Task: structure prediction
Amino acid sequence: MRRSATELRGQILAAARAEFARYGLAGSRVDRIARVAHASKERLYAHFGDKEALFREVVATDVATFYQSVTLRPDRVPEFAGDVYDLGRNSPEHVRMIAWARLEGLVLDEPRPDSQLLFEHAITAIETAQADGHVDRTWEPLDLLAMLFGIGLAWAHAPDEYQGTTDPAVIARQRAAAVEAARRIIGSPVDN
Result:
């Protein structure tokens, strides 16, 4: 059965995601990606140019998917850290891809689904939360956004004993801790 160019491209991207998530850019091999995707190396290069371009395509897709999966709402800023926690637990390959890109020294473009910058939306939500008195106004919104991601992804970067748990009570406790830490960080504004 002959695959369409779109199907082949999707299979190459899926195989590349698995390869890159496991080995990073430097350790990945195009021949393994091509073999898993049931494609020739020539077809892979025809679609993506080179290994770095393929890596960038996978990372861009993962970053967009990752950030589209969570929405920062002005009235629920602490809950955003919990949503990021859920995302990191449920999509560890996305976290790994972003980490590999950083380790490789690649500058990531801000995801732009539907021509809207995702960080712009989050920054606006934080500014609205500050104006409404939900978040301390002394926070620089971009700094607070980075902190919220850090809190939510803390377990993804923690020592092994915290990773891979399937115990619902532990998962609930970790998520609740992320939300509580975010709540404490955004604080009650001292001076509004």
Notes: The chain has a mean pLDDT of 87. The radius of gyration is 19 Å. The longest helix spans residues 5-27.
